[in-house]
Amino acid sequence: MADPPELPAAQNQADQLPKLSASDFKAYNSMAEHMDYFHSHFRQTWKVLYAACSSGQRPKSISLRQFLSTGLQFCHHLEIHHSIEENHIFPVLATKMPAFRKELELLTQHKQIHKGLDKFEAYLEKCRTGENELRLDELKELMDAFGDVLWAHLDDEVKALGAENMRNYWTVDEMRRMPM
Questions:
Q1: Cβ neighbours of residue 152 under 8 Å, at least 6 residues apart?
Q2: What is the mean pLDDT of the segment spanning 21-37?
Q3: What is the dihedral of CA 162, 167, 168, 171, to 10 degrees?
Q4: How far is it, in rounded angstroms, from Cα 165 to Cα 180?
Q5: Three-state SS for 72?
Q6: Closest by alpha carbon to 32, among 164, 177, 158, 167?
Q7: Which end of the chain has a smaller Cβ tally under 10 Å, C or N?
Q8: What three-state secondary structure class fits 108?
Q9: What is the dihedral of CA 128, 147, 180, 21, to 10 degrees?
């Protein structure tokens, strides 16, 4: 898992900065906490889907229809989440933070994730309509194709938004005015 590009340099700067007060830490860490809330939901849903694929068996409490719906909702929610980030959050962050610029790692990860996510979603949709029969081993292959980059991205993004990194780019007042 790669660190977001600016973290090593930012860490050197953080070593020279005074310790944050509890109030300032809360302000600087607010975006990381907010992002982690959403990312935790994605992780939890992924684990349910992936566990079924790995075991070759859906959880007994989830019907086929519910399982497919869970997978399709995962896709839809992740697409909306990334759309909001790319259109409303990242442009603001990119004004001061290189990792959030279009050509760098975090947005590149979005593209890599969506390459696999699109295939995953198409497969689930064909299963939902009856065009394909759900085969958990095939679904697992589709998940494996983008799982590593997804999990790295979920971690990298939260780390990049953490207090010790954000304080290198923003003031406390700027943090309180962030669009998230």
A1: 1, 2, 109
A2: 96
A3: 140
A4: 17
A5: helix
A6: 158
A7: N
A8: helix
A9: 150
What angle do helix axes 136-160 and 105-129 make, rounded to 10 degrees?
Answer: 150
98-113 confidence digits (pLDDT tens): 888 876 677 788 989 9
Residue 16: C-alpha distances to residues 5, 35, 61, 99, 168 (Å): 19, 27, 53, 21, 10
Angstrom distance (rounded) from CA 81 to CA 109:
14
Please tell me the pTM assigned to this model.
0.86
Q: pLDDT at residue 14 above 80? A: no
CB contact at 8 A, 115 and 121 = no
Tokens read off for 66:
């519910």
Q: Which of 141, 37, 38 is nearest to 82 (CA)?
A: 38
